[in-house]
Write a structure and sequence with these properties.
The protein has 501 residues and is an alpha/beta fold. 36% of the residues lie in helices and 16% in strands. The strands form 4 sheets. The protein has a 6-stranded parallel sheet, with helices on both faces. Helix 13 links the parallel strand 15 and strand 16. Helix 1 packs across helix 2, helix 3 runs parallel beside helix 5 and helix 3 crosses helix 14.
Length: 501
């Protein structure tokens, strides 16, 4: 029972915990500070699991990895000043990657700002204005729970993303009134009246799926549609895994050349669903679209990079059901088996001549279908964006929202905590891994069974940089890291009998 004793009210710290528990939130990511200590006490008291890392940036990326792997809201608690500033990169990533993230900023006392108090900064949430779904301030005890409800709704509504709420630390120990129940947002109703006309006479449709289709319910409808109507299905990077890429109808990422490029260019209609069609993944990668029907949760991104024949904005379940009904009984003129055979030849050629493709192909062979793979920015990860076959939903995670570095190590920790039932592989270059290797202490602290692959030669090969005895230094570095963090499973491929190659 979270009641403080007064009827209809409770302490602010308990009210926040009660709110999170009622929203089915079981993990909170947090690096404690003096301002947030009362909240920490309430988390412990009421059994909410807190994940504490070694740096706010890493803790924030862990919350993102958790949200990506589970499809649930990631919750991050930060302290004012440097604590808040250290999560900017992660919020940029959540914004670009459409990741639901609630940032609870335990702030200083606003009326004391200007007197030189610890971590003072006027209106600190304004830093986040352009890369969050919304910023909210609980200026007094009456507004604490309504503001928290509004921030929670913003992070999850329509197109997910980060939302931030600032709560002065003094409210944690004050009585706050219980909230009044709020109405749930009603999804926008899509207008499907012109869909039949737009698809009339089209024999070679193609579907591009985005990350907003990453639910089991939507994937079942989509799978039936593509199978029964023989429609090729390709995805953006965020959509990898919406449908398993081992299926006859699936052809991988839009960035691919060869067969995927030919399919998109010879289609008489492209149907984009739940994707923004961002330039970085489409136009700047040479993706040509002649005619486009664009389904999305709203019209914010529609028409930005490609003109549309038809725009349909609103609830994706209703939109997809309408598309399935319109296509019922129709079958395209595509010969999917022939296209699949051509793609297999294309991949066989890459296997012979492209080392990067060989590496990701090997990784696909040795890790289970359900394993979650988390990729940082490095050359192997770029190959993976294009060609790594993703066989189940929410098993391919990367920092593609804002192309951020130092993401994979902490994000994979969050992913494994969110999905302990699935194996987890982190793939990072030495440049992306070394600054965040302190989080290996977090791995040890929470006894996380987790695999880490560091591509240590990527940066030097790419930039044509060399240094004396570099390989031996890296071999010894891996051995020392293993010893330092007491991680007996950490090995370097060159090690034999505990000695560097």
């Amino acid at each position: 029972m979270l009641n403080s004793g007064n009827r209809g009210s409770m302490l602010g710290k308990d009210a926040i915990v009660s709110f999170l528990v009622n929203k089915q939130i079981r993990h909170v990511f947090h690096l404690p500070g003096i301002h947030s200590l009362p909240l920490c006490q309430s988390f412990v008291k009421h059994g909410v699991k807190t994940v504490m890392g070694r740096h706010e940036s890493a803790v924030a990326f862990a919350a993102i990895g958790y949200a990506q792997a589970t499809g649930c809201l990631g919750v991050l608690v930060v302290t004012p000043g440097p604590g808040l500033g250290n999560v900017v990169s992660a919020c940029l990533e959540a914004h670009g990657g459409q990741v639901p993230l609630l940032v609870i900023h335990v702030d200083t006392e606003r009326k004391e700002i200007g007197k030189g108090i610890l971590h003072e900064l006027p209106d600190p949430e304004r830093i986040f204005t352009h890369f969050t779904k919304g910023t909210f301030v609980a200026e007094q005890k009456e507004s604490l729970l309504p503001a928290l409800e509004a921030a929670h709704a913003a992070a999850l509504s329509a197109r997910p993303g980060p939302a931030l709420i600032s709560i002065p630390h003094i409210l944690l120990e004050k009585e706050v009134p219980s909230p009044v129940s709020s109405d749930r947002a009603v999804p926008r109703e899509p207008d499907l009246t012109r869909l039949e006309e737009a698809l009339s006479g089209k024999e070679r449709p193609v579907i591009i799926g985005g990350g907003l289709l990453m639910t089991e319910e939507l994937s079942l409808s989509l799978e039936t549609l593509c199978r029964e109507s023989a429609i090729p299905f390709v995805t953006t990077t965020a959509g990898k895994g919406v449908l398993g890429e081992g299926r006859l109808e699936t052809f991988g990422c839009t960035k691919r050349k060869g067969v995927v490029k030919d399919i998109l260019e010879s289609a008489d209609i492209v149907i984009a669903i739940g994707t923004r069609l961002r330039a970085a993944e489409t136009k700047r990668r040479g993706v040509n679209i002649k005619e486009l029907i664009h389904f999305d949760v709203d019209d914010t991104w529609i028409g930005r990079n490609y003109p549309t024949k038809l725009t349909i904005a609103g609830d994706l379940k209703i939109s997809l059901d309408g598309l399935c009904q319109t296509m019922k009984g129709r079958r395209s003129s595509w010969h999917l088996k022939e296209l699949k055979a051509l793609q297999e030849k294309e991949e066989a050629s890459l296997l012979r001549r492209a080392p990067g493709f060989r590496i990701i192909n090997l990784l696909r062979q040795v890790i289970p279908d359900e394993a979650v793979s988390v990729w940082d920015l490095n050359l192997i990860s770029y190959w993976a964006e294009y060609y790594f076959r993703v066989l189940q939903q929410k098993t391919f995670l990367n920092g593609g929202g804002s192309s951020t570095l130092f993401y994979a190590v902490p994000a994979s920790i969050g992913a494994k905590l969110g999905r302990p039932d699935r194996p987890c592989l982190c793939v990072a270059g030495d440049g992306g891994a070394l600054p965040v290797l302190g989080e290996l202490a977090t791995v040890r602290q929470y006894s996380i069974r987790w695999s880490f692959l560091s591509i240590t030669t990527t940066a030097s090969a790419y930039w044509n940089t060399s240094w004396s005895n570099g390989t031996r230094w890296r071999d010894r570095c891996a051995s020392r890291i293993r010893t330092l963090f007491n991680l007996p499973g950490l090995r370097h491929p060159g090690e034999e009998s505990g000695r560097p190659r």
